Amino acid sequence: MEHTHPGPLPWSASDWSEAAMGESLRLAAESLCTFGGFGAVAISVVRDDQVVPIAVAGAESLLDADGNQRDASAILDSPFPVSLLEDTLLPVAEEWGQLRYIPHDRSSIPELGWRVATPYVGTQWHPYDLLLAPVRDATGRLRGLVSMDAPTDGLLPPPDRRASLERYAAQASRMLLTALEREELAERQRLAMAARRLLSRAADGDSPEGILAEVTDELIAAFDLAGLRASVFEGGDRRILAETSELLGRFDPELYRISRRTAESLWRHQLVALASHDQVMNFDGPADELALIRALLREAGFDSILFVPLGAGETCLGAIAFYRAQDGPRWTEAECQAAQEIGRDLGRLVSVQRALRLEREAVGELRALDDYKGRLIATVAHELKTPIAIIRANLDLTSELVADDAHAAPSLDAMGRGVDRIARIVDDLLLLAAASDPRLPARQPVDMAPYVVSGVQLAAESAARPEVLDVRTDLPDAPVVVPADPQGLERIVVNLVGNALKYSPAGGTVVVSLRDRGDHAELIVTDEGIGISAADQERIFTEFFRSADPVARRQPGTGLGLAIVDRIVAHHGGRIDVESEVGRGSTFRVFLPAF
After folding, report:
1. Could you please report the per-residue DSSP string of 284-325?
2. Average pLDDT, the chain
3. To bridge 117 with a disulfide, which of 61, 231, 258, 346 should be the other Cys (CB 3.0-4.6 Å)?
4. Within a domain: residue 157?
5. Does the keyword Kinase apply (predicted)?
6. What is the span of the domain harbouring residue 364?
7. Closest C-alpha among 308, 181, 121 to residue 232
8. Does residue 1 sit within a domain?
9. How far lies 4's CA from each of 259, 263, 265, 321, in Å?
10. What pLDDT is attached to residue 247?
11. What CA dihedral angle connects 55, 61, 65 and 67, to 10 degrees?
12. Of 127, 142, 184, 181, which is closest to residue 44 (Cα–Cα)?
């Protein structure tokens, strides 16, 4: 796809803004007068399609086209078309190195609106002769002009003087190019500040609508806009992020189709598009689409639209349109580049916000599902309590009735163990549901040590393994205070120590330590048991997980104990870690924020 630029390029410079550079150019013109031997020197810059004089020296006495006396400001007030220079004057000029001499009799336009009033009777210089030095940049683009008139000796410069004139003119040309570069740099910096302000607000994580609402006035001032509209594409529709003018309220399906296709094409090629009544850039659609856009601009009272795609990665997400009034300035290259950067930054923000919205929705759904699961588990567990109690009561009664039947006793014992196991599962399910409830009891400042001691005692009593009773506690003398639910703390110790006793061999040692680490408390439970494989360590805090290790599976359990501990620890704003190696025991560390 080709992107053409019919007519003149859309870039233009702003009015001269740096006073110091303007004064330097005036001094350069005066130097050329003094050392070059001319009575009038003008330095001009190309603005849009006009050659605009910006510095003048000498020319104390001027005549306008009607022969009226004028002062030097007549030159500054007399821009002329670039086409006059490029198409009419330079083609007929004599080349004197970098200088161009245009005799008065070679041009069909003998004057530019003014001339020096000094009479030249019987000399070689004619009042309408011109000596010019075109100023071009490294790309060959015409950027300005140095004009010399009224030689003080009234003569054409001889060849031996032309070399020095070239040097003086070249110095003035370099100064003009430097001034233009500084002006363009200042313009880019000004626009970059507007973009940075947008970015600084984007870094706060606000919505695109909120950010645009805050910076719209700054963007309008920075880009000299009459209005703007930013929108994102959502399926077959669009959502307005910001709109400052209701004049373009009409946004029918055809215009939406044009906007979306154009934005996607621009994003693929990393371009912006520009359209006005007499210019077009990078709009690659058919002529009737461009005509529709121009008609809408006329209807709204605008002169031009700068159309900037919004996107991230390879995806175009929307577009932002900048509008200028009919008397507004033409767009500069720096402005187009700055607007493109804003489109990229805003596109990234839209992409992040979409991802965050999807993530929030997913989290909400997961929370709802988890809440439903917790309520379901709690309901089922509560409902099972009654039938379990009935079964247990009838088993006890039956055991008394058949106490002398040796054949019935084993079966009744097996049923009793099964009921006990079901009861443990139900109790663990209720604990899990309670630990998952966001409405857990409020935390209060408590010393952990007493609950560590009571938890160890409860775990040892429940273990019912007299051969594994070497449980050592290592507690500090000073209190270790944390904001906690006391029952939750005790449950953490009971479950961790209970697991350590269950999976430790006869004669093994379990050590329970408590440490005050300043900003957090650390509970450590270490055993010399069978250990946990690396693969199992990834899943041990998952509900109902049981290891595939046959040694571990021989021990009764529900697979809920560590899941309950993990939920309680998370509720307290802490974390739990495990270090283990098969055959060499395990160490569980619980970290809880200090009070």
Report:
1. -S-HHHHHHHHHHHHHHTEEEEEEEEEEETTEEEEEEEEEEE
2. 79
3. 61
4. yes
5. yes
6. 358-434
7. 308
8. no
9. 19, 17, 14, 20
10. 52
11. 170
12. 142
